[in-house]
Amino acid sequence: MPSTLTPALVRRVLSALADAGADIPADAGADGAVAALARTALARADSDPGAARPLVKLAVRASLALLADRAPGNSLEVRVPPFGAVQAIEGPRHTRGTPPGVVEASPDTWLRLAVGETPWGRAVEQGAVQASGTRSDLSGHLPLWPRVVPPASPGTKL
Fold first, then answer.
1. The Bacterial SCP orthologue domain covers which part of the protein (predicted)?
2. Closest by alpha carbon to 89, among 139, 20, 34?
3. Do the Cβ atoms of 101 and 133 come closer than 8 Å?
4. What does the H/E/C string look like for 137-153?
5. Longest Cα pair distance anywhere in the chain, in angstroms?
6. Structural element, H or E, at residue 130
7. Residue 91 within any structural domain of the chain
8. Which residues on adjacent β-strands are paired with residue 85?
9. Which is nearest to 12 in space by CA: 27, 30, 24?
10. Among 52, 39, 45, which residue's Cα sits nearest to residue 116?
């Protein structure tokens, strides 16, 4: 199955990061670029939601594409209105109407789930995510990237 995280989408992500003045390691690859964009979009949205909208939109679309690549299938539709939706997770294929499983979240919630700022269970429990169907538990697929924890300074106990 061809990747939904296309080279054109990756170029748009890299361009948006450059325009935002965000740093990204040269060896980060497509996954790292999308992670950097998601984190940058969240930070900008917290300070200036209106100006961050294009970044959030692109980060949502790219992170949904990454989810679809990592968990291919057609049994679950993940919706992040108004920016995007993908089908993912192996299982029964649907062709018309509502799929057997649906997950829906706001763009902010989706990006916080993707980067690991919000745990899946807490988002569902608080009603920030609506999930229905037998394959709608995305806890095994989120966060998309490990949470970045700064290294402890010498002599610091964790």
1. 53-144
2. 139
3. yes
4. CCCCCCCCCCCCCCCCC
5. 59
6. strand 129-132
7. yes
8. 79
9. 30
10. 39
Percent of the chain with pLDDT over 70: 87
Q: Are 105 and 116 in contact (CB under 8 A)?
A: no
* Residue 32, number of CB atoms within 10 A of its CB: 15
Classify residue 114: in a domain, yes or no: yes
- Answer whether residue 79 shows pLDDT above 60: yes
Least confident segment among 17-26, 93-102, 109-118, 119-128: 93-102
Contacts of 27 (CB under 8 A, 6+ apart): none
CATH at residue 62: 3.30.1050.40
Domain assignment present for 141:
no
Domain holding 77, by residue range, is 7-132
Provide the number of structural domains found in the chain: 1
Q: Is the peptide bond before 143 cis (omega within 30 degrees of 0)?
A: yes
The answer to whether residue 149 is domain-embedded is no
Asked if residues 76 and 99 have their Cβ atoms less than 8 Å apart, the reply is: yes
